[in-house]
Predict the structure.
Amino acid sequence: MLGDADNLIMSNAEYRMFCELLRTRCGLYFDDSMRFIVEKRLARRVAKLELGSFGAYHYYLRNGQGGDDEFACVIDELTTNETYFFRERRQLDALIHEIIPEQLLRKRHAGITTPVNIWSAGCSSGEEPLSIVMLGLEANLRPGIDFRVYASDISSNMLQKCRAGLYREASFRETEPILREKYFTKKDNLNKVSESIRKEIDLIQINLIDRSKVALLRSMDSIVCRNVIIYFDLETKKQVIGTFHDKLIPGGYLLLGHSESLINVTNQFELAQLTDDLVYRRPGLGNEIADPWQTLAKAAIDEVDEPRRKSR
Ligand SMILES: C[S@@+](CC[C@H](N)C(=O)[O-])C[C@H]1O[C@@H](n2cnc3c(N)ncnc32)[C@H](O)[C@@H]1O
């Protein structure tokens, strides 16, 4: 009976204990509507470890030897990892054709030779950062020289998938056939991303609420954190967005998912209207330089677009 997941029942008090553990350790928020899912998925773990009850499992997670490793399994059971290539393409296009060229030109004008640093925070199995590299290449930007992509997730399982670079059909629901042909090869029933693309991503495991780990990252020019904070409670959202603010250079951009906003979270960011999208920006460029900056930005876009136009 110890190993039978179907017979395990989670009490109200136990559900609250697990919710609190998930909230404090990784910021994830579960309301009562999620109870059935949490109970069902954690029951599998209790049964596998033959612990006999949710209470014993909670104790094991908190105090048992191997509790931290087991918590990684809890994360894999309870996080939503849904993602696909070129998701919210309009926003990725804004990053590639407006934001990176602006930031690159600012750097070069200031005599800085380093690439524009972009952090895909909560990258799941890697479709988001890989899309950025592919679209960058398509726009004649040079990965590693013009821009560098850092990608992180809390889940070691997702990062492993990212390293393997093998993707199922579902990841290609928004992929143009021409890009798929160019950057992927068939491997059994899966699709392998070209190694030259995959190696352009610096992968790191980061729990976004772990300030000491985030502090190890360099300053970022832009942070892409889409469909991640939506799962956090308000307190965690405020903390994580505060961390992003501190990690971004003044004038750096924060790209959230289209269903996410900073209303009631913070007023530390301003909204920046791009040609086809509205994104958040860390303030820091005074009005007195806003105009020349926009002129520079326009020149940068032209500079990057010119070879593309010629190649058509
Ligand atoms: C729905 S996916 C989003 C993937 C991608 N950004 C996109 O929009 O397609 C959410 C990801 O956030 C990660 N995540 C959840 N909580 C996290 C935390 N505290 N720290 C870092 N990543 C977290 C999950 O593991 C999951 O892979």
